[in-house]
Design brief:
300 residues, 12 helices, two-stranded antiparallel ribbon, 9% strand, two-stranded antiparallel sheet
Length: 300
């Protein structure tokens, strides 16, 4: 059965959704806490250690690169997905169209780059084509660009099971991942800058958006949650309530009323103590003599 068509966004709806999505993207721990590693990948920083042995006249070269953990990038890339899929109502180019519609050139502040600048920026980091953003790698099976490797990682290793080997030209998941870090970082950076643009246009009075959008909780930061509730119990098989109507007191009773009678009955441990010490265990004052204790141990 075909899915019903998804509703189209108005320009204002799209910008509201973009603010929330962009804030969720830029709140990711990888972007907040490991920016130094992402910056190295964005600029393709490479450190080569050169070692020369004067005795043998041999020279060796060691390339060192640092990247964040792959799992972190997977979740960050997933948060980006609505902006990168052309079929999505939140695709980045549509977001720019909505900005242009609500903030035409005549109202666009001169201190900001025009919309065409942002289109070119996005095209430079998110367009999938035959070119490379930063580098090519040549193998005996052909030449792979960083874009080939990035999308082989994304669609072959992460979200789907596409033929990643053909795109990778024999290169493994490590090289695919390394390429993905740089490209994903550039896309996130463009998103972050665009969020700043929208916020600035709101502050300047050019765009009208609810300020609450910039404050609303968009990520879950806790792992333990305590919520005041009311608890009730009934006989097994009683139909579950399906609305917020008052509960039938003949069927449902507060949990503590249902459980309390069971708590008043002595447990097996209490019974054992009462039998062997001749004292109620709830007194918590054992008060037995050494002779009684010795007899108790002998009995065991």
């Amino acid at each position: 059965m075909a899915k019903p068509p998804r509703p189209r966004f108005t320009d204002e709806q799209r910008l509201r959704a973009f603010v929330l999505r962009a804030r969720r993207i830029t709140s990711h721990s990888l972007w907040r806490e490991h920016r130094n590693l992402l910056e190295k990948a964005r600029t393709v920083e490479m450190n080569v250690t050169v070692t020369h042995d004067h005795r043998t006249n041999e020279t060796t070269y060691l390339l060192r690169e640092e990247f964040p953990e792959e799992e972190l990038l997977e979740s960050l890339a997933a948060r980006l997905r609505p902006l990168t899929l052309p079929s999505e109502e939140l695709h980045y180019t549509k977001v720019l169209d909505s900005i242009a519609a609500l903030a035409p050139d005549s109202q666009f502040p001169e201190c900001f780059e025009p919309i065409e600048h942002w289109r070119k920026m996005w095209a430079g980091v998110a367009t999938r084509d035959e070119s490379a953003q930063a580098y090519f790698i040549s193998t005996d099976k052909g030449v792979a660009s960083d874009q080939d490797l990035m999308y082989a990682w994304y669609y072959g290793d992460v979200v789907h099971a596409d033929d990643k080997e053909a795109e990778s030209k024999g290169l493994g998941v490590r090289e695919r991942y390394k390429a993905a870090v740089g490209i994903v970082t550039r896309i996130v950076e463009c998103t972050d800058l665009t969020l700043y643009l929208v916020r600035s246009l709101v502050d300047e009075g050019v765009l009208t958006l609810d300020p609450e959008l910039f404050e609303r909780e968009v990520v879950v930061t806790g792992t333990v949650f305590e919520t005041p509730v009311k608890a009730y119990a009934s006989e097994v098989g009683s139909p579950l309530p399906m609305d917020d109507a008052p509960l039938d007191p003949e069927v449902w009773q507060p949990m503590h009323d249902a459980v309390a009678p069971q708590l008043d009955a002595p447990s097996s441990c209490e019974t054992w103590w009462q039998t062997h010490t001749r004292r109620p265990s709830r007194d918590w004052t054992w008060g037995i003599t050494q002779q009684e204790l010795a007899q108790l141990l002998e009995t065991d």
